[in-house]
Amino acid sequence: MKFKTLAQAALLATAGLATLATSPAFAQAKEQFFPVLVYRTGAYAPNGVLWANGYVDYLKLTNARGGVNGVKISFEECETGYATDRGVECYERLKGKGATVFQPLSTGITFALTEKAPADKIPLITAGYGRSESADGGVFKWNFPLLGTYWVAADVLLQHIAQKNGGMDKLKGKKIALVYHDSPYGKEPIPLLQERAKLHGFELSTLPVTHPGVEQKATWLQIRQSRPDYVLLWGWGVMNSAALKEAVATGYPRDKMFGVWWAGAEPDVKDVGDGAKGYSAVTMQHGAEPNSKVAKDILSLVHGKGQGTGPKEEVGQVLYMRGVISAMLAVEGVRSAQERFGKGKVVTGEQMRWGLENLNLDQKKLDGLGFAGVMRPVSTSCVDHMGSSWARIHTWDGQKWNFTSDWLQADQSLIKPMVKAAADKYAADKKLERRTPADCQS
Amino acid sequence: MFYRENGQFKTSYRADQQIFPITQDRVALVALLAFAFLVVPMLASEYFFRAILIPFLILSLAAIGLNILVGYCGQISLGTGAFMAIGAYGAYNFFVRIEGMPLIVALVMGGVCATVVGVLFGIPSLRIKGLYLAVATLAAQFFTDWAFLRIKWFTNDSSSGSVSVSGLNVLGLPIETPVQRYLFCLTVVCICALLAKNLVRGHIGRAWMAMRDMDVAAAVIGIRPIHAKLSAFAVSSFFVGLAGGLWGFVHLGSWEPAAFSIDRSFQLLFMVIIGGLGSIMGSFFGAAFIVLLPLFINQVPAMLGVPISTALAAHLEAMIFGALIVFFLIVEPHGLARLWSTAKEKLRLWPFPH
């Protein structure tokens, strides 16, 4: 009996390995293959699902609109569970299928893939996350933190706080606490905040919260003791709603709390309901946009045909829109590459990189794609892989997110030298040369 | 029929004490090694190397390390992830701080760091046993998580707490392509497995097993408990630390403490339990089961052409995997290695069982 089971198991295993070995199916000739790294399970799933649905729906919408100059898009999802080693596995699996661009959706996975991308010649888009110094295209040839980085976010938040107080000089003597997810993601803003603290003389305290962030009692005890004037929240997933609940319990005013854009979506505040009223978060650059043209297009062309990926009600929510915008940036990268290397052709990873480096989404193009009012123009270059450093603040009114600030731009005179210094340090550590002007033509 | 020992006589102690006394085993092992070193590099795809073979090899090495401690010496440890982290960060610090540091020396020094800390956290084992010890080693896990997240010196003042290495080479040979990485890992794992096997066959291994089976009796027959237990912790942590260094340097290339979280400790403990406690071979089986099976299950629906959503696939993976663990432990509580030796026994008698 035992031997029989063993033999069956062995047979199954060999059959499985044989199929695994022969499985790399290559993308069809006329299809641009998009790998989709998502997390629909695990601790961060409530937020990850929305992003994934938006991303996939936009790819479907692009196909419904006729593809990119006739090139249809094929895609495949891979579940990372927000774990770095699973993300690397997904990357290797989908790379073999002809992937030309990756969006890791996790700072940890971004760090791991940054090491691999140059060898594989596949660009990485980290729209609104990833490592801040990768905005420097002179060193990070394959990374594209389009729309902004955590340094941009931190800077905009401080500007907003300063405006409320009547100017940057009013920050002097204030106490600002950063409650952050204890991972590379949460630590990203610290260098910029420290720089600003030195410049303007406010007191910065950093309070880490360990993964997944449910347990924050000790952190909020510290806040209760030190009574900071403002709390910046750098959380993700369940950590955000837990922080808001703790704030309610501690009696810390929510209108003094400001989140990063991963802490400013519906799943973060819904459970807290009225308790989250007055809580604000920065948005890069979109917020909840159920009335935008692209959301309506998705409803009619994708959901209307019964091909929608999630519930209809989610279309236009904050994280859903982030997925949509991320997908749009990748698709527009392909379009931009096609303009140089031949319309109607499937582009390679290297061509895609050129396309992303010469991305020029002006207002007209954005309007045409249905993003009017959702975002500002983005234009990248060889040196500037970020393309835009504008952001807005939105505030939860108990029912929905509303914009409560004008467009704010991060102070490039402060960020640029920091980016350059950090990128130079990276290049020195890795013994990399900066790209030559010949390599950097745009 | 294929596996009969008729006519294989051992006429010397040397012949009787070989690792593989049966000719068929030796032939099979040589064939397997030749296949792994010569054929696999030509056949396998990049995905196979980077996502399957390399993690499998490295985690096998870590499982061997843990098996020495748990399987051979009977000291339950939940701090394996911590010792991997110490190996990785130790090797990283030697690698970046000393100019011209050879990769292998850095990795070995990482292993040595893990050994030192392993012995430190092994000291409680002299007083406490079983589950109590497991909880004490858990302290190692929490301590290293804290240390590598908070003490900036360890991460070379990296602002994000994530470190990375590049430009790996051994004696001038680059370790860059998947094949090179695979061969490097394979060589290290083969050497370590041979070392481990010989250790557990010798008097040191006998002392460990005596401690495991009954420590009072072992002490009575003249085995020094301090020596036996701490040497088990030392050797185990060295292998685990080496595996941690390989995981960071060769597999990930860039890592953060989360890569060596408590989940990794549990994963490794499952490997040695499912693979077979007290068996070097079992460590490989366990690693294969835990690393490969979820990936395999994950890809089955796509292979069969059944379109299911990513979330459902991930949930199914967890469910089937869990059910299989339970099934295997009911069918063979002594692990896959025991299943393997049972099969071997049956094959010896085949086709005339009695």
UniProtKB/TrEMBL annotation, chain B:
CDD domains hit by this protein: TM_PBP1_LivM_like (cd06581)
Protein known as: ABC transporter permease
Keywords from the UniProt entry: Cell membrane, Membrane, Transmembrane, Transmembrane helix
Presence of keyword Membrane: yes
The keyword Disulfide bond is annotated on this UniProt entry: no
Molecular function GO terms recorded: branched-chain amino acid transmembrane transporter activity
Membrane topology category: Multi-pass membrane protein
GO CC, alphabetical: plasma membrane
Residue ranges of the TM segments: 27-45, 51-69, 76-95, 101-123, 130-149, 181-200, 230-250, 270-296, 308-331
InterPro entries hit by this protein: ABC_transp_permease, LivM-like
UniProt subcellular location: Cell membrane
